[in-house]
Amino acid sequence: MALDELKSALPDYAKDLKLNLGSVIGNSELPQQQLWGTVLATAIASRSAVVLRALEPEARENLSPEAYQAAKAAAAIMAMNNVYYRTRHLLSDPEYGNLRAGLRMNVIGNPGVDKTDFELWSLAVSAINGCGMCLDSHEQVLRKAGVERETVQEAFKIAAVVQAVAATLDAEAVLAGA
Predict the structure, then answer these.
(1) Measured distance CA(119)–CA(101) in Å, rounded
(2) 22, 108, 115, 132: most buried by Cβ count inside 10 Å?
(3) What's the CA gap between 36 and 3, in Å, rounded?
(4) Residue 95: is it exposed, middle or buried by C-beta count within 10 angstroms (0-12/13-18/19+)?
């Protein structure tokens, strides 16, 4: 299912999502690698097979093999980190912040693509997974690297729309008995 098919699969009550999906992907000012890496990473993070199947082929076409793997790696590592750091943040005992994580995160230091792109994808996945600590961390790295707020916002707008499309289509499938 291509992007247009994904948009037409949305029900009438989700017209805003249809328009937003076309806008955040079709009218994005992000460079192709940042755009499609963000789309792929957030499609994976959405946990929706329908959305991932629809968006992955175009992402693969628009990404180098290295960027394709790095976007998937961002979704994978943030799936772990977002749970770990969100939990550490939510626990009332601040001493957990003094304990060593002891989790391998080597891909963050050597993602195989421009670090800024990987940070942007990690931020977008963190938005879907709701980890404020990770959002702050990735946003600070991006801003220190000279990335404008509008670019950061573009990434979490993509995350918001991809997640909403996933939730809507998955709910419709359940309601239809699929």
Answers:
(1) 20
(2) 108
(3) 12
(4) exposed
Q: Tell me the per-residue pLDDT of 130-146, one tens digit each, with 9 for 90 and over.
A: 999 999 999 999 999 99
| Domain spans in the chain, listed from the N-terminal domain onward | 3-175
Which residue in the list 9, 35, 74, 131 is annotated as catalytic? Answer: 131
CA 77/CA 75 separation, integer angstroms: 6
CA dihedral sign, ordered 98, 109, 107, 29? positive
Which parts of the chain register pLDDT below 50? none
- CA–CA separation, 135 vs 21, rounded Å? 22
Is 131 a catalytic site residue? yes
CB 6 within 8 A of CB 55: yes
Q: d(Cα 157, Cα 21) in Å, to the nearest integer?
A: 10
pTM of the model: 0.95
Catalytic residue, chosen from 71, 120, 134, 159, is 134
141 given a catalytic annotation: no
Q: What is the largest CA-CA distance in the chain?
A: 50
The H-assigned helical ranges of 10-64 are 15-26, 32-45, 49-62
